Description:
The chain is mostly helical. Helices cover 71% and strands 0% of the residues. α11 (201-217) packs parallel to α13 (273-298) and α16 (336-348) packs antiparallel against α17 (354-369). It starts with a helix and ends in a 40-residue tail after the last helix.
Amino acid sequence: MKAALPLLLGLLVATPAAAHRTSAPSRAELTDELRGINQQLDYARRRIDLTLDADPTSALTLLHRAQVDFFSGDPARAAARLLDLLSRPGFADHAARADALSWLGESLWALGLQRAARQHLREAVDAPKQTPSAFQRRLAAWLERAGPEASTEGLRLLWRRAQLTDQPQNARVRYLFGRAFYRAGALGDAEGAFASVPPGGLPHLRARYFLGVLALRRDDLDAAATAFEEARAAWTAQMAALPAAPLDLDDIDEDGPAREATEIDVPAPADDKAAEHLEALHRLGAVIHLALARLAAAQGEPERAWTLYRRVPPGDPDFEAAMEEAVFVLLQRDAHDRGVRVLDQLVAQQTPGLRAARLALWRAQLMAQGTRYEDAQAAYQALDDEFAGRRAALDAALAAKPDALNDATLAWNAPRDGERAQAVDAELATQTKALAEAAEMARALAALSTDAALPAVRDGRALTIALAEQLVRFDARLSEAEAAAHRESDTADEPHGGGPPASVHDVELLRASATRMRGRLGRFEKQLDRYSRSMRQRLDAVLAAEQPALARLEVRLAAEQAAMGRLAGEMRNTARENLETAAAEAVLGQVEIAWWRKEEVSRQIRAAAQARDAAQQTLSAPESAPTPAPIPDAAPTGEPPPADEPPVDPTNPGGIARLR
Length: 660
């Protein structure tokens, strides 16, 4: 507190009375000295009151400075200002207290102190005397960050309170309530909240989607289909209402023009809100159509499933999964060539490794199943040659860095394992840095709880010590004056500091004034104590919330470091095994081509026999008898291979299930 520095400097300046030191101070000298002490205390009280009592103008100024710090990328400074403001005794009933709590929560969240941030955001929600709009805004901020540890009963209380201020209905808050209930495991409450979200906007789409998810969790496929269809209808309406023409994503009829999913162009997201809204809308559309496609596939509707799978656009996080699932649907329709075309698109997007090998082997198998034997043979042979080269490259990479994870090792592990290893490796570096920063932040917060780090308290304490020392000296001077007043030998010639001597009555009056000043000084110290205690309590609450999290982070970091060492060794071995298995599958696939040729001949023989039998029945049947429908041919993929051949896993064609 820079303003307090003049107070300390003022203590070093001698008063006029202090310039005349006599054995018997005069009445004027004593009066001037006491008046000087009183003026210093009055000035200090005014400055401290201005700092600690938080009048409306200064409090809002400090709050606005904290907001500027936050938006300037300095949440630590913003948090320090807000902790100071919230600790002031005069701010407890201030109208801006809820705003200060909310901004402190945002600042702590930006610093990574999430538990403390949630506590302050919730305290802002519970603050009294809020307008309905302010309450809804602060409630949404807390619900955005509510974790699974949120109390279900507490959420229910807030839900009931929110209904009293929810006019008109706040779709975002209702959706966030549903999500918070869902995370807390209160699925019934979540369903009620999601169902209450009014139509219009992204919250309604998300709520309808979650209603479908909840229906699936209780195995109610009909209700799930209804919810997903409602979400789809709402999505279509919102897309049609966009200022620009929406993407042409009409259902593709069996006999309609073939429009592959790669032809659907998704605009690149921009930084403005309109572009972010459009991006979120496209993402929701992909998620909704993928859910409907999976539901249709599970209910035995391959044509509808194929149409819906194609509505997931390229670039979407679920695009590759949707296309792989769509291939299984195509196999149910014996559309092997179309399945090969879809896999062509996926293979072209892959970097060399296990996933690319898996898709390429599957593609070759679909060629064989679709009677494209020469193409399948060529594809398997090309893979066999490629894997031989990959084996040599992998061996060289492992020999160069035997103790480290390299790109070749990651590529030849399952994609999830490779992604996990990369995430763990990156997380180790991030956690190490985060732990150091969090520990430093905790030390800084702990230091703030000492008087030495609080400017107002530090300067105020120094001032009270100096004034107390002056009062002690003043008491000594009073004693001298009192002794002189009682001496009968006191004459006008005895020096008295340039003025008339103080009488016994004067001394009594001055001593009473000094006593009252000590009382004022005591009240001043209590004011400092209240501020210091309030600041320490709030800081201690932050530390109490974060210190367990820091301890868990430290334990987790040590565990991840140990796991990373084990994982690296396991993944090196797995990479070799997977590459060897893929090479074996390429050889085995060439052998299986002969089996698929035999199966095709068998199918043609059965079809010819069925046609002959049907013709004979038609000739021998009475003229009025109806002609029976021919028995449909069994799909080649529906028959198991002979016992001496490896089985084909319908969930992972090409035997890739043997790849780890």
